[in-house]
Amino acid sequence: MLQDSYGRDIHDLRISVTDRCNFRCVYCKSADPRNYSPHHNLLTWEEFLRLARIMAGLGIRKIRVTGGEPLLRDGIIDFLARLSEIEGINDLAVTTNGYLLTEKAGEMARAGVRRVNVSMDSARPEKFAAISRTPGSFERVLRGVDAALEAGLGPVKINVVLVRGFNEGEILGFAKLAREKNLVVRFIEFMPLDADHAWNRARVVTAEEIFGAIDPVFPLVELPRHEASETALRFGFADGKGEIGIVAPVSMPFCGQCSRIRVTADGKLRTCLFSLAEHNVGRVMRSGASDAEVQKYIERLVYHKEPGHRINEPDFVQPSRTMVYIGG
């Protein structure tokens, strides 16, 4: 089993398979193709699968495939199917912007994907289209959410990053969406991973504020966490279906229970979302290293996983890579 020097069991792997996206969101540098990594820098499907098998042998049991927009990359369905067949992997999920879900949801379910998370910035059609710079995108994403539900990829989770001055007025709109479609809407505190490096604490909408906006209108009841390392505080609606999750890495850090590591599309292993150093596991694999050698390399890196993200420390330094290049 992978374990770090603080005694945390590491069993959850995020794999970003691309830095490309079919949205051109106004705040995201992935909107500009000039920022894409050359294809030869990205791991191949076979390299990702080899790495996943090595990781499974080390005790990784949950894999989430992210991007960029992972459903854009050619061969993604076959990759997901082969990933789901790896012994030891018992939970395979995908984070997506939802635009291609209408066409892909059924295939994903048949490939062995269990759940999807859909990232959304607004519950208002006009604002959503303006942000994504993609006409009709809101309606298409909602059709994709419905397709995911029909395919059995539930509970479908909607990820909403709240930023003061941008979308904090949409909390109740998203809560209504959760109730109407029986979704899990997860509100995520704004973290210093933005492309413009403009994050500041004043723009963080805290967990306390989020709960305080919803509970007087739609009374909430606290739900137990599925496991100790789960990131979200969970709440059900007292009078109906749907669920609210609140992920509060800034106001209520959960680093002490962290079980995650990440691999970027270009083969860099990150032991923390806010790591200042990356480790080129892709280059190690391409150098001719055996599986056992790659395994030992990963074990050494994970053992030295950071104790926490240090967002609340005076000497905090924002990582140079932003979320779209790290993978959600």
Describe the structure.
The protein is an alpha/beta fold. The protein has a single domain (12-326), classed as TIM Barrel (Alpha-Beta Barrel). Helix content is 30%, strand content 17%. It contains ten helices and twelve strands. It has helices at residues 45-57, 76-84, 101-111, 125-132, 137-150, 171-181, 207-214, 281-286, 291-303, 323-326, and strands at residues 12-16, 62-66, 91-96, 115-119, 157-162, 184-189, 220-223, 232-237, 243-247, 260-263, 268-270, 279-280. Strands 7-8-9-6-5-4-3-2-1-10-11-12 form a twelve-stranded mixed β-sheet. The longest helix has 14 residues, at 137-150. It starts with 11 loop residues before the first strand and ends with a helix. 42% of the residues are buried. The model has no long low-confidence stretch (mean pLDDT 91).
Identify the notable features of this structure and list them briefly:
10 helices, twelve-stranded mixed sheet, 328 residues, TIM Barrel, 17% strand
Summarize the structure.
The chain contains ten helices and twelve strands. By secondary structure, the protein is α/β, with parallel strands linked by helices.
